[in-house]
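Q:
My hope is that you can spare some time for a protein that puzzles me. I hope you can help me see how the letters and the C-alpha coordinates relate. Thank you; the sequence and its C-alpha coordinates follow:
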Amino acid sequence: MMAKTFPYFLAFFTVSLHAQTPVDSTALRQVDSLLAVVKQQVADKQYAEALATNAAAEKLALETFGRRSLTYANCCYYHARILEKQWNKPSLQEGLQWASESLDIRQEILGDSHVECARSHSMLASLNTILRQYDQVLVHAQEARRIFEGANQTDDSDYRLTLRQIAIAHSSMGNYAEGEGMFLFILQHIAKREGKESREYAQVLSNLANQSNWVSNYEKCLQYGQEAANIYEKTGGQTDVYYAFCLRSMGQANMSLKRYAEAEKQLLKALDIVEKTAGKNDSRYADVLSMTTMLYNKMKAYDKALPLLIESLERIEKSMGKQNNGYIRALSNLATAYIESGQLQKGEPLLLEATDLQEKHIHGNVELQIMNNLASLYRMTGRFVAADSLCGKIDVLSQQAIIQSIHYMSEAELQQYVSKMDLHYSAFSLAHIAALSKALPPDIAGTCYCIFRSI
Protein backbone atom coordinates (compact mmCIF):
# COMPACT_ATOMS: atom_id res chain seq x y z
CA MET A 1 0.00 0.00 0.00
CA MET A 2 2.84 2.39 0.83
CA ALA A 3 4.37 1.95 -2.65
CA LYS A 4 1.05 2.96 -4.29
CA THR A 5 0.23 5.96 -2.10
CA PHE A 6 3.78 7.38 -1.97
CA PRO A 7 3.70 9.35 -5.27
CA TYR A 8 0.51 11.18 -4.20
CA PHE A 9 2.00 11.98 -0.81
CA LEU A 10 5.15 13.33 -2.50
CA ALA A 11 3.12 15.57 -4.81
CA PHE A 12 1.15 16.98 -1.87
CA PHE A 13 4.29 17.42 0.22
CA THR A 14 6.13 19.23 -2.58
CA VAL A 15 3.32 21.74 -3.04
CA SER A 16 2.89 22.26 0.71
CA LEU A 17 6.51 23.39 1.06
CA HIS A 18 5.67 26.62 -0.75
CA ALA A 19 3.31 29.34 0.34
CA GLN A 20 -0.14 28.52 -0.99
CA THR A 21 -0.80 31.64 -3.05
CA PRO A 22 -2.39 31.59 -6.52
CA VAL A 23 0.88 32.96 -7.97
CA ASP A 24 2.94 30.18 -6.37
CA SER A 25 0.55 27.47 -7.53
CA THR A 26 0.56 28.84 -11.06
CA ALA A 27 4.35 29.13 -11.08
CA LEU A 28 4.69 25.59 -9.75
CA ARG A 29 2.52 24.24 -12.55
CA GLN A 30 4.52 26.24 -15.08
CA VAL A 31 7.83 24.85 -13.81
CA ASP A 32 6.44 21.30 -13.78
CA SER A 33 5.21 21.77 -17.37
CA LEU A 34 8.60 23.06 -18.47
CA LEU A 35 10.36 20.09 -16.84
CA ALA A 36 7.97 17.71 -18.60
CA VAL A 37 9.04 19.32 -21.89
CA VAL A 38 12.70 18.94 -20.85
CA LYS A 39 12.14 15.24 -20.19
CA GLN A 40 10.66 14.75 -23.68
CA GLN A 41 13.41 16.79 -25.34
CA VAL A 42 16.06 14.62 -23.65
CA ALA A 43 14.23 11.49 -24.86
CA ASP A 44 14.28 12.98 -28.39
CA LYS A 45 18.00 13.84 -28.03
CA GLN A 46 17.30 17.56 -28.42
CA TYR A 47 19.87 18.50 -25.80
CA ALA A 48 20.43 22.16 -26.75
CA GLU A 49 16.69 22.78 -26.69
CA ALA A 50 16.42 20.92 -23.37
CA LEU A 51 19.07 23.16 -21.79
CA ALA A 52 17.20 26.28 -22.96
CA THR A 53 13.88 25.01 -21.61
CA ASN A 54 15.47 23.99 -18.33
CA ALA A 55 17.07 27.44 -18.00
CA ALA A 56 13.60 28.99 -18.25
CA ALA A 57 12.36 26.62 -15.53
CA GLU A 58 15.35 27.47 -13.33
CA LYS A 59 14.75 31.21 -13.71
CA LEU A 60 11.08 30.90 -12.77
CA ALA A 61 11.86 28.62 -9.82
CA LEU A 62 14.51 30.99 -8.46
CA GLU A 63 12.32 34.08 -8.83
CA THR A 64 9.27 32.47 -7.24
CA PHE A 65 10.52 29.92 -4.70
CA GLY A 66 14.19 30.70 -4.14
CA ARG A 67 17.38 28.69 -4.36
CA ARG A 68 16.63 26.46 -1.33
CA SER A 69 13.38 25.03 -2.69
CA LEU A 70 12.41 21.60 -3.97
CA THR A 71 11.22 23.16 -7.21
CA TYR A 72 14.69 24.56 -7.89
CA ALA A 73 16.25 21.24 -6.79
CA ASN A 74 14.17 19.48 -9.46
CA CYS A 75 15.52 21.93 -12.05
CA CYS A 76 19.08 21.20 -10.90
CA TYR A 77 18.43 17.45 -11.22
CA TYR A 78 17.18 17.79 -14.79
CA HIS A 79 20.09 20.06 -15.69
CA ALA A 80 22.43 17.26 -14.58
CA ARG A 81 20.37 14.75 -16.53
CA ILE A 82 20.79 16.75 -19.74
CA LEU A 83 24.56 17.08 -19.24
CA GLU A 84 24.84 13.34 -18.51
CA LYS A 85 23.80 12.69 -22.11
CA GLN A 86 26.60 14.85 -23.56
CA TRP A 87 29.36 12.23 -23.06
CA ASN A 88 32.21 14.71 -22.81
CA LYS A 89 34.26 15.47 -19.73
CA PRO A 90 33.47 19.20 -19.27
CA SER A 91 29.71 18.57 -19.47
CA LEU A 92 29.92 15.58 -17.13
CA GLN A 93 31.93 17.51 -14.56
CA GLU A 94 29.44 20.38 -14.70
CA GLY A 95 26.69 17.78 -14.32
CA LEU A 96 28.26 16.65 -11.05
CA GLN A 97 27.85 20.19 -9.68
CA TRP A 98 24.17 20.38 -10.62
CA ALA A 99 23.42 16.89 -9.27
CA SER A 100 25.25 17.71 -6.02
CA GLU A 101 23.18 20.87 -5.60
CA SER A 102 19.95 18.94 -6.14
CA LEU A 103 21.06 16.41 -3.51
CA ASP A 104 22.05 19.12 -1.01
CA ILE A 105 18.68 20.88 -1.25
CA ARG A 106 16.66 17.67 -1.14
CA GLN A 107 18.56 16.43 1.92
CA GLU A 108 18.00 19.75 3.70
CA ILE A 109 14.24 19.77 3.06
CA LEU A 110 13.30 16.08 2.86
CA GLY A 111 15.94 14.38 5.00
CA ASP A 112 18.73 11.97 4.02
CA SER A 113 16.49 8.92 3.49
CA HIS A 114 13.92 10.31 1.06
CA VAL A 115 13.54 8.61 -2.33
CA GLU A 116 14.17 11.89 -4.18
CA CYS A 117 17.59 11.98 -2.48
CA ALA A 118 18.18 8.47 -3.82
CA ARG A 119 17.53 9.76 -7.33
CA SER A 120 20.13 12.50 -6.88
CA HIS A 121 22.61 9.91 -5.56
CA SER A 122 21.84 7.72 -8.58
CA MET A 123 22.46 10.64 -10.95
CA LEU A 124 25.81 11.31 -9.27
CA ALA A 125 26.65 7.61 -9.67
CA SER A 126 25.74 7.72 -13.39
CA LEU A 127 27.95 10.75 -14.05
CA ASN A 128 30.85 9.20 -12.15
CA THR A 129 30.39 5.93 -14.06
CA ILE A 130 30.94 7.69 -17.39
CA LEU A 131 33.90 9.54 -15.88
CA ARG A 132 35.23 6.17 -14.62
CA GLN A 133 35.47 7.43 -11.03
CA TYR A 134 34.34 4.12 -9.60
CA ASP A 135 35.06 4.80 -5.94
CA GLN A 136 32.56 7.67 -6.12
CA VAL A 137 30.13 5.47 -8.06
CA LEU A 138 30.04 3.02 -5.15
CA VAL A 139 29.62 5.79 -2.56
CA HIS A 140 26.51 7.21 -4.24
CA ALA A 141 25.03 4.02 -5.71
CA GLN A 142 25.21 2.13 -2.42
CA GLU A 143 23.57 5.04 -0.59
CA ALA A 144 20.83 5.17 -3.23
CA ARG A 145 20.30 1.43 -2.85
CA ARG A 146 19.97 1.80 0.93
CA ILE A 147 17.32 4.49 0.53
CA PHE A 148 15.30 2.64 -2.13
CA GLU A 149 15.27 -0.57 -0.11
CA GLY A 150 14.47 1.26 3.12
CA ALA A 151 11.49 2.93 1.43
CA ASN A 152 10.36 -0.39 -0.08
CA GLN A 153 10.77 1.05 -3.58
CA THR A 154 12.56 -1.91 -5.19
CA ASP A 155 10.19 -1.91 -8.18
CA ASP A 156 11.41 1.55 -9.16
CA SER A 157 13.44 1.62 -12.40
CA ASP A 158 15.98 3.91 -10.71
CA TYR A 159 16.55 1.17 -8.13
CA ARG A 160 17.53 -1.27 -10.88
CA LEU A 161 19.76 1.42 -12.41
CA THR A 162 21.44 1.80 -9.02
CA LEU A 163 22.15 -1.93 -8.82
CA ARG A 164 23.61 -1.81 -12.33
CA GLN A 165 25.87 1.07 -11.34
CA ILE A 166 27.20 -0.97 -8.42
CA ALA A 167 27.80 -3.98 -10.69
CA ILE A 168 29.62 -1.87 -13.31
CA ALA A 169 31.85 -0.36 -10.63
CA HIS A 170 32.77 -3.77 -9.21
CA SER A 171 33.56 -5.19 -12.66
CA SER A 172 35.55 -2.13 -13.70
CA MET A 173 37.61 -2.33 -10.50
CA GLY A 174 38.40 -6.00 -11.16
CA ASN A 175 35.85 -7.54 -8.76
CA TYR A 176 34.45 -9.75 -11.50
CA ALA A 177 32.60 -12.32 -9.39
CA GLU A 178 30.74 -9.60 -7.48
CA GLY A 179 29.96 -7.78 -10.70
CA GLU A 180 28.62 -10.82 -12.51
CA GLY A 181 26.56 -11.91 -9.52
CA MET A 182 24.92 -8.49 -9.35
CA PHE A 183 24.31 -8.39 -13.13
CA LEU A 184 22.63 -11.80 -13.08
CA PHE A 185 20.47 -10.76 -10.11
CA ILE A 186 19.38 -7.63 -12.01
CA LEU A 187 18.55 -9.71 -15.10
CA GLN A 188 16.15 -11.84 -13.04
CA HIS A 189 14.60 -8.72 -11.54
CA ILE A 190 14.11 -7.08 -14.96
CA ALA A 191 12.76 -10.28 -16.53
CA LYS A 192 9.97 -10.37 -13.94
CA ARG A 193 9.12 -6.68 -14.20
CA GLU A 194 9.80 -5.72 -17.84
CA GLY A 195 10.37 -9.00 -19.68
CA LYS A 196 13.36 -10.39 -21.57
CA GLU A 197 12.76 -8.28 -24.68
CA SER A 198 13.09 -4.91 -22.93
CA ARG A 199 15.91 -2.45 -23.58
CA GLU A 200 16.70 -2.46 -19.88
CA TYR A 201 17.29 -6.22 -20.09
CA ALA A 202 19.53 -5.66 -23.13
CA GLN A 203 21.60 -3.08 -21.22
CA VAL A 204 22.53 -5.65 -18.59
CA LEU A 205 23.35 -8.25 -21.25
CA SER A 206 25.64 -5.65 -22.82
CA ASN A 207 27.34 -5.09 -19.44
CA LEU A 208 27.90 -8.85 -19.13
CA ALA A 209 29.37 -8.92 -22.64
CA ASN A 210 31.84 -6.19 -21.67
CA GLN A 211 32.88 -8.02 -18.50
CA SER A 212 33.36 -11.27 -20.45
CA ASN A 213 35.72 -9.40 -22.77
CA TRP A 214 37.71 -8.10 -19.78
CA VAL A 215 38.31 -11.63 -18.47
CA SER A 216 39.05 -12.98 -21.98
CA ASN A 217 35.92 -15.16 -22.05
CA TYR A 218 35.26 -14.23 -25.65
CA GLU A 219 32.67 -16.84 -26.61
CA LYS A 220 30.51 -15.80 -23.67
CA CYS A 221 30.93 -12.17 -24.76
CA LEU A 222 29.68 -13.06 -28.24
CA GLN A 223 26.69 -14.86 -26.72
CA TYR A 224 25.66 -11.97 -24.47
CA GLY A 225 26.47 -9.35 -27.12
CA GLN A 226 24.39 -11.02 -29.83
CA GLU A 227 21.40 -11.46 -27.51
CA ALA A 228 21.56 -7.77 -26.55
CA ALA A 229 22.03 -6.70 -30.20
CA ASN A 230 18.92 -8.64 -31.23
CA ILE A 231 16.84 -6.76 -28.65
CA TYR A 232 18.23 -3.36 -29.63
CA GLU A 233 17.65 -4.10 -33.31
CA LYS A 234 14.01 -4.99 -32.61
CA THR A 235 13.38 -1.91 -30.46
CA GLY A 236 15.55 0.72 -32.12
CA GLY A 237 16.74 -0.65 -35.43
CA GLN A 238 20.29 -0.91 -36.74
CA THR A 239 20.85 2.83 -36.31
CA ASP A 240 20.58 2.55 -32.50
CA VAL A 241 23.79 3.66 -30.76
CA TYR A 242 23.33 0.88 -28.20
CA TYR A 243 23.13 -1.64 -31.04
CA ALA A 244 26.41 -0.17 -32.26
CA PHE A 245 28.04 -0.79 -28.90
CA CYS A 246 26.99 -4.43 -28.99
CA LEU A 247 28.79 -4.65 -32.33
CA ARG A 248 31.79 -2.98 -30.72
CA SER A 249 31.92 -5.59 -27.92
CA MET A 250 31.54 -8.47 -30.37
CA GLY A 251 34.15 -6.92 -32.66
CA GLN A 252 36.60 -6.79 -29.77
CA ALA A 253 35.90 -10.45 -28.93
CA ASN A 254 36.34 -11.57 -32.54
CA MET A 255 39.56 -9.56 -32.78
CA SER A 256 40.91 -11.40 -29.71
CA LEU A 257 39.87 -14.70 -31.32
CA LYS A 258 41.81 -13.63 -34.47
CA ARG A 259 38.62 -13.56 -36.54
CA TYR A 260 39.78 -10.32 -38.13
CA ALA A 261 37.40 -10.13 -41.10
CA GLU A 262 34.33 -10.46 -38.87
CA ALA A 263 35.78 -8.04 -36.34
CA GLU A 264 36.47 -5.41 -39.01
CA LYS A 265 32.95 -5.72 -40.37
CA GLN A 266 31.41 -5.24 -36.91
CA LEU A 267 33.66 -2.38 -35.82
CA LEU A 268 33.30 -0.39 -39.05
CA LYS A 269 29.52 -0.75 -38.88
CA ALA A 270 29.55 0.37 -35.23
CA LEU A 271 31.76 3.35 -36.12
CA ASP A 272 29.38 4.43 -38.88
CA ILE A 273 26.33 4.21 -36.60
CA VAL A 274 27.92 6.16 -33.75
CA GLU A 275 29.18 8.86 -36.12
CA LYS A 276 25.69 9.34 -37.61
CA THR A 277 23.78 9.22 -34.31
CA ALA A 278 26.16 10.86 -31.81
CA GLY A 279 28.74 12.64 -33.95
CA LYS A 280 32.53 12.53 -34.05
CA ASN A 281 32.92 14.69 -30.93
CA ASP A 282 31.16 12.14 -28.75
CA SER A 283 33.49 10.06 -26.55
CA ARG A 284 31.72 6.88 -27.70
CA TYR A 285 32.85 7.57 -31.27
CA ALA A 286 36.42 7.91 -30.01
CA ASP A 287 36.07 4.62 -28.13
CA VAL A 288 34.93 2.63 -31.20
CA LEU A 289 37.57 4.36 -33.32
CA SER A 290 40.25 3.33 -30.82
CA MET A 291 39.10 -0.29 -30.94
CA THR A 292 39.14 -0.22 -34.75
CA THR A 293 42.72 1.04 -34.77
CA MET A 294 43.68 -1.75 -32.37
CA LEU A 295 42.31 -4.23 -34.90
CA TYR A 296 44.35 -2.72 -37.73
CA ASN A 297 47.45 -2.91 -35.54
CA LYS A 298 46.86 -6.62 -34.99
CA MET A 299 46.30 -7.06 -38.73
CA LYS A 300 49.57 -5.12 -39.29
CA ALA A 301 47.62 -2.79 -41.59
CA TYR A 302 49.56 0.25 -40.41
CA ASP A 303 48.66 2.33 -43.47
CA LYS A 304 45.04 2.16 -42.31
CA ALA A 305 45.86 2.35 -38.62
CA LEU A 306 48.12 5.42 -38.31
CA PRO A 307 45.76 8.20 -39.49
CA LEU A 308 42.90 6.73 -37.47
CA LEU A 309 45.13 6.32 -34.41
CA ILE A 310 46.14 9.98 -34.43
CA GLU A 311 42.50 11.02 -34.83
CA SER A 312 41.42 8.65 -32.05
CA LEU A 313 43.97 10.01 -29.59
CA GLU A 314 42.97 13.62 -30.28
CA ARG A 315 39.25 12.92 -29.95
CA ILE A 316 39.57 10.97 -26.69
CA GLU A 317 41.71 13.70 -25.13
CA LYS A 318 39.22 16.37 -26.23
CA SER A 319 36.13 14.54 -24.98
CA MET A 320 37.36 12.79 -21.82
CA GLY A 321 40.86 14.06 -21.02
CA LYS A 322 43.98 11.97 -20.44
CA GLN A 323 43.23 10.23 -17.14
CA ASN A 324 41.17 7.31 -18.44
CA ASN A 325 41.65 3.85 -19.93
CA GLY A 326 40.50 4.94 -23.39
CA TYR A 327 43.23 7.57 -23.75
CA ILE A 328 45.88 5.20 -22.36
CA ARG A 329 44.83 2.46 -24.76
CA ALA A 330 44.92 4.90 -27.69
CA LEU A 331 48.46 5.96 -26.72
CA SER A 332 49.54 2.33 -26.66
CA ASN A 333 47.92 1.57 -30.01
CA LEU A 334 49.62 4.53 -31.69
CA ALA A 335 52.96 3.59 -30.11
CA THR A 336 52.60 0.00 -31.36
CA ALA A 337 51.93 1.18 -34.91
CA TYR A 338 54.99 3.43 -34.85
CA ILE A 339 57.24 0.71 -33.42
CA GLU A 340 56.04 -2.01 -35.78
CA SER A 341 56.55 0.32 -38.74
CA GLY A 342 60.13 1.00 -37.61
CA GLN A 343 59.60 4.44 -36.04
CA LEU A 344 60.92 3.54 -32.58
CA GLN A 345 61.75 7.12 -31.60
CA LYS A 346 58.07 8.10 -31.97
CA GLY A 347 56.72 5.05 -30.18
CA GLU A 348 58.78 5.09 -26.98
CA PRO A 349 57.58 8.41 -25.46
CA LEU A 350 53.97 7.35 -26.07
CA LEU A 351 54.48 4.05 -24.22
CA LEU A 352 56.21 5.84 -21.35
CA GLU A 353 53.30 8.29 -21.07
CA ALA A 354 50.76 5.43 -21.16
CA THR A 355 52.61 3.49 -18.46
CA ASP A 356 52.92 6.57 -16.26
CA LEU A 357 49.23 7.48 -16.59
CA GLN A 358 48.20 3.91 -15.88
CA GLU A 359 50.25 3.69 -12.69
CA LYS A 360 49.00 7.05 -11.38
CA HIS A 361 45.34 7.09 -12.32
CA ILE A 362 43.92 3.69 -13.27
CA HIS A 363 42.61 1.22 -10.71
CA GLY A 364 41.22 -2.24 -11.42
CA ASN A 365 41.82 -3.36 -15.02
CA VAL A 366 45.53 -2.90 -15.77
CA GLU A 367 46.63 -3.08 -19.41
CA LEU A 368 49.56 -5.50 -19.07
CA GLN A 369 50.10 -5.41 -22.82
CA ILE A 370 51.22 -1.78 -22.57
CA MET A 371 53.95 -2.68 -20.09
CA ASN A 372 54.90 -5.71 -22.16
CA ASN A 373 55.24 -3.55 -25.29
CA LEU A 374 57.56 -1.20 -23.42
CA ALA A 375 59.64 -4.13 -22.13
CA SER A 376 59.89 -5.48 -25.70
CA LEU A 377 61.05 -2.07 -26.92
CA TYR A 378 63.77 -2.02 -24.23
CA ARG A 379 64.96 -5.45 -25.39
CA MET A 380 64.93 -4.37 -29.03
CA THR A 381 67.15 -1.40 -28.21
CA GLY A 382 69.56 -3.34 -25.97
CA ARG A 383 68.37 -1.98 -22.60
CA PHE A 384 68.14 -5.38 -20.93
CA VAL A 385 68.35 -4.20 -17.30
CA ALA A 386 65.35 -1.90 -17.80
CA ALA A 387 63.51 -4.71 -19.62
CA ASP A 388 64.15 -7.20 -16.79
CA SER A 389 62.98 -4.70 -14.16
CA LEU A 390 59.75 -4.06 -16.04
CA CYS A 391 59.19 -7.78 -16.62
CA GLY A 392 59.35 -8.27 -12.86
CA LYS A 393 56.44 -5.86 -12.43
CA ILE A 394 54.54 -7.56 -15.24
CA ASP A 395 55.03 -10.95 -13.61
CA VAL A 396 53.57 -9.78 -10.30
CA LEU A 397 50.55 -8.17 -11.98
CA SER A 398 50.07 -11.24 -14.22
CA GLN A 399 50.01 -13.52 -11.21
CA GLN A 400 47.40 -11.36 -9.51
CA ALA A 401 45.22 -11.33 -12.62
CA ILE A 402 45.54 -15.07 -13.17
CA ILE A 403 44.71 -15.96 -9.57
CA GLN A 404 41.69 -13.67 -9.76
CA SER A 405 40.57 -15.32 -12.99
CA ILE A 406 40.97 -18.79 -11.48
CA HIS A 407 38.50 -17.91 -8.75
CA TYR A 408 36.11 -16.36 -11.29
CA MET A 409 36.14 -18.85 -14.17
CA SER A 410 35.51 -22.55 -14.45
CA GLU A 411 38.38 -24.90 -15.36
CA ALA A 412 37.12 -25.16 -18.94
CA GLU A 413 36.88 -21.39 -19.30
CA LEU A 414 40.31 -20.93 -17.73
CA GLN A 415 41.89 -23.38 -20.16
CA GLN A 416 40.36 -21.45 -23.05
CA TYR A 417 41.56 -18.15 -21.53
CA VAL A 418 45.16 -19.30 -21.12
CA SER A 419 45.26 -20.80 -24.61
CA LYS A 420 44.42 -17.42 -26.14
CA MET A 421 46.86 -15.25 -24.16
CA ASP A 422 49.05 -13.07 -26.37
CA LEU A 423 52.08 -13.38 -24.04
CA HIS A 424 53.77 -16.72 -24.56
CA TYR A 425 55.21 -16.83 -21.08
CA SER A 426 51.78 -16.42 -19.42
CA ALA A 427 51.09 -20.15 -19.54
CA PHE A 428 54.46 -20.82 -17.97
CA SER A 429 53.76 -18.20 -15.28
CA LEU A 430 50.41 -19.79 -14.49
CA ALA A 431 51.99 -23.22 -14.23
CA HIS A 432 54.62 -21.79 -11.90
CA ILE A 433 51.96 -20.19 -9.69
CA ALA A 434 49.93 -23.39 -9.63
CA ALA A 435 52.96 -25.37 -8.52
CA LEU A 436 53.63 -22.96 -5.64
CA SER A 437 50.10 -22.33 -4.42
CA LYS A 438 48.12 -25.02 -2.63
CA ALA A 439 45.01 -22.91 -3.13
CA LEU A 440 44.90 -23.70 -6.87
CA PRO A 441 43.68 -26.94 -8.46
CA PRO A 442 46.71 -29.19 -9.08
CA ASP A 443 45.64 -30.18 -12.59
CA ILE A 444 45.93 -26.57 -13.81
CA ALA A 445 49.73 -26.82 -13.73
CA GLY A 446 49.63 -29.78 -16.11
CA THR A 447 47.16 -28.02 -18.37
CA CYS A 448 49.39 -24.96 -18.59
CA TYR A 449 52.51 -27.03 -19.24
CA CYS A 450 50.80 -28.68 -22.19
CA ILE A 451 49.66 -25.31 -23.53
CA PHE A 452 53.14 -23.86 -23.09
CA ARG A 453 54.70 -26.77 -24.99
CA SER A 454 52.21 -26.31 -27.83
CA ILE A 455 52.83 -22.54 -28.32
